[in-house]
Amino acid sequence: MSTFKAIRIDKAEKGTTAAYADFSDADLMDGDVTVRVTHSTVNYKDGLAITGRSPVVRRFPMIPGIDFAGVVETSGHVGFKPGDAVVLTGWGVGETHLGGFAQRARVKGDWLVPLPVGLTAAQAMAVGTAGFTAGLAVMALERHGMKPTDGPVIVTGAAGGVGSVAVALLAQAGWRVIASTGRPEEADYLKGLGAAEIVPRKELSDPGRPLGKERWAAGVDSVGSHTLANVLAQSKYHAAIAACGLAQGMDLPASVAPFILRGVALLGIDSVMCPMPRRLEAWAKIARDLDKAKLAAMTTTISFDRVIDAATDILDGKIRGRVVVEIE
């Protein structure tokens, strides 16, 4: 019976523990496709899972890692055969189903996406759940009828994974992007991705008024709490804001004023259980529209043995953009 390396999370007397461990094929959960994992990535949710700062993991022991890319080894699924390059994001992997911080994974074939044409496995993981979520957010704004001629777009948490990809995609589409960040030293980085203006996090993160001066026509928010409340309060008439994160908090201390006085729309973005047709559409859009040079500029590559340290760093705001993990 073959063994493989993985990160193992166990429940402890106080919280959880995370360490590298050996697993066997017999330890893998049910699924009709087994994948040799070549790459993964570190998302904010992965940081929460590994550090135990939030109850992301709901089964123990758990292999964390909500994303992976790799090559099919065995398949009982009609859509995949050995040798196929595949990508997985979401579906509870790394939370309730053993995840991608491992050399091998067994999952349902219905959860897998063929590696998008135009992306390598490493590039797909440079996108990962964060970039995929950003793609869904941009699609939601477009589906709502928003366009660059309506006015500028705000992106909060802009130096993070979701924010970095959102800035690049929106700028590529012709939007004037206003990037909000708490890291002023990243101004040149964000302008390199296409941001036209940098707004300090402090302008949006403190409690604000129910309604403020109209500043933007659209937005992508990965922060939540007071930041999202202020983004809504300062939106233009008939603006649309795509909400997809909670870095500041899960609460929304806002009023109904932006909705009933300006007709602002709040668009919720879920990447975990996203239906397959929309999932495939988002991946195709990202592969087609995301500037690969900008993707490379926002990406850091680390070895598998550095993942646990990176989990802490991403929660502490020490990671810019995206992190690719070379599993092999």
Describe this structure in words.
The chain is 30% helix and 27% strand. It has helices at residues 44-51, 121-143, 161-172, 187-193, 202-205, 225-233, 257-261, 276-289, 292-297, 307-315; strands spanning 3-11, 16-24, 33-41, 67-75, 85-89, 104-107, 113-114, 153-155, 177-181, 195-200, 216-221, 235-243, 265-268, 299-303, 322-326. By secondary structure, it is of the alpha/beta class. The protein has 2 domains: 3-115 and 298-326, Medium-chain alcohol dehydrogenases, catalytic domain (Quinone Oxidoreductase, Chain A, domain 1); 129-268, Rossmann fold (3-Layer(aba) Sandwich). Helix 1 (44-51) packs across helix 10 (307-315), helix 2 (121-143) crosses helix 3 and helix 2 (121-143) crosses helix 8 (276-289). The mean pLDDT is 96. Strands 3, 4, 5, 6, 7, 14 and 15 form a 7-stranded mixed sheet that branches. Strands 10-9-8-11-12-13 form a 6-stranded parallel sheet, with helices on both faces. It contains 10 helices and 15 strands.
- What's the average pLDDT? 96
Largest sheet: 7 strands, mixed
Write the element-wise H/E pattern from the N-terminal end onward: EEEHEEEEHEHEHEHEHEHEHHEHE
Number of strands: 15
* CATH-defined superfamily of the largest domain: Medium-chain alcohol dehydrogenases, catalytic domain
Number of helices: 10
- The CATH first-level class of the largest domain comes to Alpha Beta
Spatial separation of the terminal alpha carbons: 19 Å
Number of domains: 2
Tell me the Rg in angstroms.
20 Å
Would you identify the regions where 5 or more consecutive residues have pLDDT less than 50?
Answer: none
User: Would you give the CATH topology of the largest domain?
Assistant: Quinone Oxidoreductase, Chain A, domain 1
Shape: globular
Helical content stands at 25-40%
In CATH terms, what is the architecture of the largest domain?
A: Alpha-Beta Complex
